[in-house]
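STRUCTURE:
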């Protein structure tokens, strides 16, 4: 009976007292990121992302060995990287070409799209 009840408790509720700061910070960051993403146009991002699929995959999970996964990455991080490729601050031949024609709005939309893709992490056995 007790065991059954314990199983029903969600993992987040099992965080020991005093350990709440980190989950709270993560929740606040997630709320912030969601707020920023809300200003972007998700469907426009989805449309633009078709040009990225050949390397980063149709679901933002890379299909080429040298391209990173984009799905679920923070929108702030994705847009910062795209702007860095566009300006040349981050150097990569292919990504410089991909980022060059993107407007700030395109970048916000792409970042929101890839961020909105949910990924599930599973630790190895
Ligand atoms: C021809 C293959 C190719 C295409 C198409 C492509 N990328 Fe990339 N992308 C790469 C590679 C390779 C890297 C790793 C570059 C490096 O080492 O800096 C990368 C890196 C990135 C990163 C940095 C990710 C990180 O974890 O730091 C972002 C963001 C990104 N690409 C977004 C895009 C977007 C958005 C598009 C479409 C508009 C796109 N890419 C199209 C190959 C591609």
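SEQUENCE:
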């Amino acid at each position: 009976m007790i065991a059954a009840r314990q199983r029903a408790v969600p993992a987040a509720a099992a965080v020991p007292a005093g350990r709440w700061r980190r989950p709270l910070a993560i929740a606040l960051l997630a709320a912030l990121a969601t707020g920023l993403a809300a200003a972007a146009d998700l469907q426009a991002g989805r449309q633009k992302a078709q040009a990225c699929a050949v390397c980063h995959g149709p679901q933002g999970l890379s299909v080429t060995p040298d391209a990173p996964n984009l799905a679920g990455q923070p929108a702030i991080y994705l847009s910062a990287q795209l702007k860095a490729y566009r300006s040349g601050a981050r150097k990569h031949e292919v990504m410089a070409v991909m980022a060059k024609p993107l407007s700030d709005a395109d970048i916000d939309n792409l970042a929101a799209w890839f961020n909105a893709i949910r990924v599930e992490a599973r630790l190895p056995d």
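REMARK: Residues 41-119 form a domain with the Cytochrome Bc1 Complex; Chain D, domain 2 fold (CATH 1.10.760.10).
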